[in-house]
Amino acid sequence: MRAKNLYIYEPIQNDEIRLLKFIRDDDHRISAVLQAFSVGQPLPEYNSISYTWSLDEATGMTAPTLEMEGRQLPILDTIRPFFDALRGKEILLDDTWWWIDSICIDLSNVQERAQQVQHMQFIYRHAKQVIVWLGQASDDSDLAIDFIKFIHKTIHRQVTVPEIRAMLQQDHYNAQWRALTGFLSRKWWSRIWTVQEFVVPESVSFWCGMGEASREAVSLSICMADICTSAGVKENPAFTLANNRRRAWSLYKVGRKQELTLTLLASAAYFSCMDATDDRDRLYGLIGLATAQSSLRVDYTKKAAEVYLQFTKSFIEDHKSLDIICFAATYSAPSGTPVPSWVPDWKRQNPYPQVIPSMVSQSSQTHIGNFRTQQSLDFDPSVYYSASGKREAVYQFEGSTLHARGFVVDVVDGIAGNKSHDMVQSSPSRSNPRSSSADILTSVCRSLVLDRKDRYLSYAMPVADFVRDFTCLLKRIATQPESSAPQELRQWFEWTRSLQIQGLNFEGHLVDSPGPNDDDAAAAPNEDEYYQQTFFGRFYDVVVRLSFRLMVTSNGRIGMVIDKAMKGDLVCILFGCNVPILLRKSECGGSYRLIGECFLDGYMNGEALDLPDVVEQTFAIF
User: Fold this and answer.
1) How far apart are CA 2 and CA 187, in angstroms?
2) Which of 7, 272, 380, 384 is the S-S candidate for 364 at Cβ 3.0 to 4.6 Å?
3) Using CA atoms, how far apart are residues 148 and 214, in angstroms rounded to an integer?
4) Chain-centre distance of CA 93, in angstroms?
5) For position 375, what pLDDT does the model report?
6) What is the pLDDT of residue 353?
């Protein structure tokens, strides 16, 4: 098509947005008009659409399909079926104003694009309704929508959780669960821009073909998939992404009433792994979701690595905290890239964003926070990690190097095995026992659950209950190999049984320690990971989902390290960081690479500051 026939956008002011309306022209053809409105003035009622920009990354703008003021505007291939759906529902020409990003924003204008991103939260919050367009119907999409509506009605009959689990986990519903998995696997769920479009609006409706379901109904079906663990949906990455949205929406609603905050850092920790055509949008696309002020400004003239570095530096400067560097373990930059080891590389794909992305995501610390459910908002304000006490960060930036003040506590020596790594045995020279087997098992138990009762790190571990369950389950596995026990715990025991801890292997400590009273009915431990505030529920989160490994230091201290830790890594306290971190000395010896966060039992609340012979130093982390 000749360029002179293409629609040319009229410039708009920084405080303006464009809205779209479909009309029938003088020749009775469907066309559209765009009109600018100031966000500082009352807007007409308008709807918006949330959708994916292409079915395939190789496709994009297709042949012009929308007539605009006598000219042709190229539109996306994924949006044409939505217009057909509007026509099929006989609402295309009902005089409704629409905000559709790919049409209402001049995407060729970088400055306008950046300015419009700043208005996203306003646009979606003030829309009368946002329609999520999942695409055209499939063989089982209607079954999925019917199942979603069925769950919605069932829950409103006020059935109990055990009752609904018993009902929905029957084989009768297998096809429905598969259909729901397909529904959640639609490309829309994986796109980062659609997160705020799910969370922020007052009203959201899901359309798939001609079928519809409300956001509330869809969210309840996701919740039921979480509860019905045997349905086979929960461990699917598509479910995890959807469930994180559900929890973000719940917290966003409550936060607007109770002044709870959603931070950009927390949003990035949960959602930056999602699909984005532009890696800068892994942060920019979440700004509208945050209710806490962020100093990050949208600037498409900067490269992604520059945006990530500036965001990290700004967080450290704004909060006098180094906690943000802990996310660089999960979102770690490949070697040879311009992103340093202490800066989270948000474009690094993390296919399983966890319920709690990091120990510094603890509930009591609002400078980061987490996406906990509405039922989990309460927390014990006295329970929080503070490995560096009240010491603020002492730091200096030199290009891409972080100079941070702190000290070495110990050195990683032995590490339990897991699916990806063999066990690394502790050094024989560290074999003098210093603690009783009972005390060592208690320390191991605390480490396996990060000394917390719940996955949002809101309450301290109930020592007696968790240690009882821990020893009961492990003694059963060790002494009765054919007995029933969770497979995940049985595997962990095989990977750990030979690990030397203060002169005796783990199995030896287990045998030497007194077990729970078998006559005590309370000693029967939970073995279902759904019940999260139990030893096994917490073990499942930390060891299975987060892939933490049991660790013994050169001085016999016990803790947990991330999957890529190695013998010889330094366990350090950095001032201004709430958890210990692992550093690995470079080959030249003058600088360090950040490996990740670390749990060190007995040293999570500033105790290391009182150790004798602490030698403070400045670490140059590259």
Assistant:
1) 33
2) 384
3) 9
4) 40
5) 80
6) 59
Among the residue ranges 355-359, 487-491, 568-572, the one predicted with the least confidence is 355-359
C-alpha span between 397 and 430 (Å, rounded): 38
Q: How far is CA 148 from CA 52, 153, 377, 480, in A?
A: 22, 9, 26, 44
Instruction: Please indicate whether residue 17 or residue 28 has the higher confidence score (pLDDT).
Output: 17
β-bridge pairing 129-133 and 46-50? parallel
Please state the pTM of the whole predicted model: 0.89
Burial category of 45 from C-beta neighbours within 10 Å (exposed 0-12, middle 13-18, buried 19 and up): exposed
In whole angstroms, what is the distance from residue 307 CA to residue 312 CA? 9
Return d(Cα 431, Cα 429) in angstroms, integer.
6
Cβ proximity of 272 and 87 under 8 Å: no
**Which amino acid makes up residue 373?**
T
374 class by beta-carbon count within 10 Å (0-12 exposed, 13-18 middle, 19+ buried): exposed
CA distances from 424 to 496, 581, 593 (A): 10, 19, 21
Give me 493's structure tokens: 């025991």
Q: Which has the closest alpha carbon to 358: 602, 340, 367, 622?
A: 367
Question: Backbone phi, then psi, for 573, in 5-degree steps?
Answer: -110, 120
Nearest to 598 by CA among 447, 419, 440, 454: 447
- Can you tell me the distance from the alpha carbon of 216 to that of 149, in angstroms, rounded to the nearest whole number? 10
pLDDT at 56 over 50: no
Q: What sign for the dihedral angle of Cα 400, 402, 408, 413?
A: negative
Long-range Cβ pairs for the range 487-494 (8 Å, 24+)? 488/529, 488/539, 488/540, 488/543, 488/544, 489/536, 489/539, 491/419, 492/416, 492/418, 492/539, 492/543
Look up residue 594 and give its amino acid: L
DSSP conformational letter for 191: B
pLDDT the model gives residue 428: 84
Both tokens assigned to 455: 């996955």
Q: What is the pLDDT of residues 252-293, one digit of tens each?
A: 888 766 667 889 999 999 999 999 999 999 999 999 888 888
> Is the sign of the CA dihedral 464, 470, 475, 480 positive or negative?
positive
DSSP 321: -
